[in-house]
Design a protein that fits this description.
By secondary structure, the protein is of the alpha/beta class. Helix content is 47%, strand content 10%. It contains 30 helices and 15 strands. It has an 8-stranded mixed sheet, with helices on both faces. Strands 12-13-14-15 form a 4-stranded antiparallel sheet. The longest helix has 23 residues. The radius of gyration is 29 Å and the shape is globular.
Length: 682
């Protein structure tokens, strides 16, 4: 299978997009011919990291009465599959109806494109009230799933995740307060079974030897509370969908967690649907989670074309179910992985085929491909599935260091560079011994624990010497520790692996910019910023260089560019304000200091600068308030008194003479001459 977009089946990709585009044309609540007479309120619950065999009536070693009760009332799909074994791509498919090849999100820490119709947007336009409560940073609004939700609660109180109980409490409070005048779409996401597994009591004690199952059981308890409250409070008839976004390896096939492989533990997920038009029972037909989108649109009566109705979970139309695991390919250059399931047969392509009968061999131990070959329908499906081109999806360069640390604490770290793509690349399943090492090294690198990460990166490169990401991280770690000769040698190795790589040029330039030879980095940084102005590290480095060169006006423009790529911190804003004042750009300086004060509140320490800028722009009331906040111990207090006296005169305050006198009494070398020549004081 070729690794370029040129070999994709155009008809296949257009089919992915056309399905949801047809759904997106609906806008009227009465448009759907097959919709129930009264549109239901819909509860969508997504269970992060929950294996199909860890919940439900057939699960062993765990009790999940809430899920089981829904399974009894509705339809349980025994062969439901995630589109990808990662949280953001899988949820993007649920809300757009597209496989990752269609919506373009193959990994976490990307952004779901706004060009694809989102189920929440469609339902909101169709008259639904919409609300979402998510439990982890990986689904924060910045990643693009908040579109169409009037309420999108991703407030984690400074943490990276919150418990199912905390999320449920917020959702229940919303249900108690929300109006009942129109139908409701409520999405609640639970993150609990994600590693590390630490269930609350009594589940911690009850599942002491199986904490993962303890997390699932604790989450199921909250699911029961949520469903009961929704059915009590939601207006009209009720429809419910409960699904996992992906599973968890737990050591099967050598994968402890998820994201690297396409075997059943991470791709086979629980799915139960209750609501109008759903016949209770069990379905053994393979279905994709992407069909949740069609089901929501169908229930809402927003399907004039009938396309969503044909693909909804109400219809049960047979299909070849597809899936992918592209993280090892996009991060390390290993073989891309594609999955296709039809009936009980499952094919995985990753450089070569594997075929399993998942009914007779649920553990996928007996590869049937050497004996019976690949079923023609599965071969066509995998051959037609588009493989992404590395770099076609924008890199996560707009993430702040703090955002990267938050994702790393959840086990999600994106690659540093576009990989070296090669036909003889290893198959991910043959590299399972490196999974844990890579995950640990990636986390340590993001945490800037460079001395600890170097031995792990060296171990990775012994087994995978063409791994560009590991090579560049090793070079960067050596650079940050001041090991210049070793860093240069590693950067040279990276350049040999990828002679045309802009990533290699960028990270070597960043190495130079940090040292005595910083001027050598300037031409490279200038070229990269000109060619790819969204490359945040390059723009930041060039801004620092312009400051060193004594070119503050250019530095101001570059820092403004940085702030369009990521949310600036208060320190960033103060720095921009200070530079802008230096070059006389009052408007930029004032805006920067105002935003910094808005973010910092009482902790803001630059009221003097703010007061001076307000005086310059004749915003005298604001200037008075800002200057009055400058404490007496501030090193610029004499200037604050001088400017405050000016404001007092201009506002015709009765105590203006006293303020002028006080400014004279406490003048310093700078303000003494200003006071002597100030016309307002005569």
């Amino acid at each position: 299978m070729s690794l370029s977009m040129s070999r994709l089946s155009l008809a296949f990709l257009l089919g992915l997009v056309a399905t949801v585009a047809a759904c997106g044309r609906g806008g009227s609540p009465d448009a759907g011919r097959s919709a129930p007479a009264q549109r239901p309120s819909i509860l969508l619950v997504t269970l992060d990291t929950t294996r199909a065999d860890a919940i439900g009536p057939e699960a062993k070693g765990v009790e999940t009465p809430a899920f089981n009760a829904l399974a009894t009332r509705g339809r349980r799909f025994r062969q439901a599959y995630a589109p990808a074994p990662e949280t953001l791509p899988s949820h993007a498919s649920m809300f757009t109806g597209l496989y990752p090849a269609g919506h373009g999100v193959h990994e976490n820490a990307r952004t779901v494109p706004a060009r694809h119709p989102h189920a929440a947007e469609q339902l909101q336009r169709g008259g639904y009230r919409t609300a979402a409560f998510v439990s982890a940073f990986v689904l924060a609004r910045r990643f693009g799933l908040a579109r169409g939700f009037e309420t999108y609660d991703d407030e984690l109180a400074g943490a990276v995740e919150r418990s199912a109980r905390d999320t449920t409490e917020r959702a229940l409070a919303y249900l108690e307060a929300v109006g009942r005048d129109r139908p409701l779409l409520l999405w609640v996401h639970y993150f609990d079974p994600h590693a590390p597994y630490a269930p609350p009591e009594p589940f911690r004690t009850r599942y002491a030897t199986q904490p993962y199952l303890g997390e699932v059981a604790a989450m199921d308890e909250q699911l029961g509370r949520l469903v009961a409250a929704f059915e009590r409070r939601a207006p009209g008839p009720v429809a419910i969908v409960v699904a996992s976004d992906h599973g968890e390896g737990l050591g099967d096939h050598g994968e402890l967690q998820h994201g690297h492989l396409l075997y059943q533990p991470t791709m086979h997920v629980p799915l139960v649907v209750v609501g109008p038009g759903i016949e209770p029972g069990v379905s053994d037909a393979p279905v994709s989670l992407r069909r949740i989108h069609h089901t929501l649109v169908d229930w809402a009566g927003l399907d004039p074309s009938g396309e969503a109705t044909r693909h909804s979970l109400r219809a049960g139309a047979p299909e070849v179910v597809l899936g992918e695991a592209m993280k090892p390919f996009l991060s390390y250059g290993w073989q891309p992985q594609i999955m296709a399931v039809e009936g009980t047969k499952k094919a995985i392509y990753a450089g070569r085929y594997e075929v399993y009968d998942v009914a007779a061999d649920p553990g996928e131990r007996r590869n049937l491909e050497p004996v019976s070959g690949v079923p023609a329908s599965l071969r066509r499906a995998t051959d037609g599935y588009p493989v992404p081109t590395p770099g076609a999806t924008p890199a996560a360069d707009t993430l702040t260091d703090e955002a990267r640390r938050q994702l790393a604490s959840l086990g999600y770290v994106s690659a540093t560079a576009q990989p070296v793509v090669r036909r003889d690349a290893p198959r991910p399943v043959d590299m399972v011994k490196l999974f844990e090492v890579i995950d640990r090294a990636s986390t340590l690198f993001v945490q800037q624990r460079y001395a600890e990460v170097i031995p792990l990166l060296e171990r990775i490169l012994r087994d995978d010497p063409f791994n560009l990401d590991a090579t560049l991280r090793l070079a960067t770690a050596q650079s940050m520790l001041g090991r210049d000769a070793q860093a240069v040698a590693s950067f040279r190795k990276a350049a040999e692996l990828a002679p045309q790589s802009q990533d290699v040029r960028l990270y070597f330039a960043l190495h130079q910019e940090r040292g005595r030879d910083w001027a050598q980095a300037v031409p490279t940084l200038e070229r990269i910023v000109a060619d790819t102005p969204e490359r945040l590290p390059a723009v930041e480095a060039l801004a620092r260089v312009r400051e060193r060169q004594g070119r503050p006006a250019e530095a101001v423009a570059l820092w403004q560019q940085v702030h369009t790529l990521r949310e600036p911190t208060p320190a960033d804003l103060v720095k921009l304000g200070t530079l802008a004042m230096e070059v006389g750009d009052t408007a930029v300086a004032l805006s920067a200091f105002e935003r910094a004060r808005e973010q910092q509140g009482a902790a803001f320490r630059h009221d003097l600068e703010l007061g001076v800028l307000y005086v310059a722009t004749r915003q005298l009331e604001q200037a008075r308030a800002a200057l009055d906040r400058v404490p007496a111990g501030h090193p610029g207090y004499p200037m604050a008194l001088f400017k405050r006296a000016q404001v007092s005169v201009l506002l015709k305050e009765p105590d203006a003479p006293a303020r002028i006198a006080r400014a004279r009494q406490q003048a310093d070398a700078t303000t003494r001459g200003l006071i002597a020549t100030e016309r307002l004081f005569r």
